[in-house]
Amino acid sequence: MLHGHPYNRRMPASPAPARPIALLPDRLVSQIAAGEVVERPASVVRELLENAIDAGARRIALRIEDGGMRRIVVTDDGCGIAPGELALALERHATSKIATLDELERVGTLGFRGEALASIASVAQVRITSRTAGAPAAWRIDSATAEITPAPGTVGTSVEVLDLYSQTPARRKFLKSPATEAAHCVEAFRRTSLAHPTIEFELQVDARRAGHLPATDWRTRALGALGDEYDAAHRAVQTQAGPLRLWGVLGLPTVNRARADRQFLYVNGRFVRDRMLGHALKQAYADLMHGERHAAWVLFVEIDPSLVDVNVHPAKIEVRFRDPAALRSFVFHAASEALRAPASAGAAAPAAVDAPRAGAHARTGAGRPSAGPALSAQASNRSLAFYAPATAGGSVDNGPDEAPGRWPQGDAPWPRGVFAAQPLAHPPRMATARDDTAADGPPLGHALAQLHGTWVLAQNRHGLVLVDMHAAHERVVYERLKTALARNALATQPLLVPATFRADALEVRVVEDEDAALRALGMELTVLSPSAIAVRAVPAALAGGDVVALARAVLAELQEHGTSRTLEERRNALLATMACHTAVRANRRLSLDEMNALLRDMEATPGADQCNHGRPTWLQLSTAELDRWFLRGR
User: Which of 73, 107, 396, 594 could bond to 405 as cystine, CB 3.0-4.6 Å?
Assistant: First the structure.
């Protein structure tokens, strides 16, 4: 029986014959290198487009056939290649981009390795036709024959790649369908064109024209890539700190996606994937959008080339920074400030809500607050001391794992109880056309009425404002809690009569073990018996809410995530839960004074355009849209 065991049938392998160490043939070396540089047809597209950009082209045309597997052609009107250099263009490590180590450490071009064309030529047939300015004719080189011959052509270069992986058929088996490979080529085309809006791009897929991007400004090119839904749902950011510059477009959290396929990040004009910067941007959206959804952005970082290493991977999609923490903080704060602009910033240019067509029902899609103005140059004088305390005229949010900052806040804390009377910046009154059409009127106007116990209707100089009172109040309370906790000034309100509730053993254990954490959150809970807990104090801002529901929610968070992580990593989520349980509920009747107090607080609250779950808190209906709805002026 033992002889029948499969392990017993194995014979010891005979040692392989000794083989002398020898240099690999150049062609095999190129084919090995091609495995990293030419992963799929889209890799060829990216390399050729980058070469055209480095050549100073003002117009670039891309044509792909059969998903790029049969033919890829990139034509540009750049400087061209001299006839005597065409043969070198197909050699490995031959480049005009760098010549010394110092130039490598400060490389400012997209290409610099001198590997792309040689790697492509090792797995496909390559034809280069090029003509320099002043030359009487163009010249062509064919990688199959290495012959250089005269050819018709205008100033610039045309690179034609035929039968990709025809010389390494095993690699071709790993490619997807032509449609899938074509989609990857189109994505590479879009990523490259996004960073170079002053260049005209044209795309042809098989026999059809698939895209034409005329030269334009960066914002137009960026919004075109994100999609029509972001035209009126974005914030532009432009800021600078020392040698760092950041500009781009951030999609509003209320317009989000199921996949992270609209996130474009560039460093010195090069599309990159960087986990650190990607995480910083996600943190900026953390308390503005549901955790399972993804935001959209197109952001450009400009940094001194000596402070970033692009020589990390042959695909050049990864980079390393000399001071990653400073860059991460810079990006996080810039994005946070742009996204968390007070609600008043978006009121200046209200978003239109589509009017119904004649004879048709009104569209039911929810309107959204308009995009606010671009982040101004107020941060342009910042130094690289990102962790310096905020000045009276500026503010920073608490970045992950950073020192607390502070947001502009009113002098008076949130009143005890929900919407209790308090001094208002604008005395409560019924809004009139004269009041709210004045140029200096409050951005969100003055309250008119409450609709179905859920919405506040207000009139401002642009028209009608609709506010979701629960969502808006939730954001206001949440921001006040964050600010107070960051300053270690979370006021506690003792309850005249403690609120008791039945608890299970786990809740009792949390109260006994996490007393310090609960007190840090402004809560005082005591165990009355193995099955009862008393709430004796809560944060003053939340004293008017359901304290029992609040206590249960906090205990559930602590029980699930643990104290060691709750106050650091889960702090904002915990505060959002507290705010949600305390915010004014539907069917709570509000007076005009209370409604106006909410509007004024929204105008002074960062991130007031969205609640803690990413829903919009208000929208604007302009008088022009109302006129269209009712066919006035026709």
Answer: 396
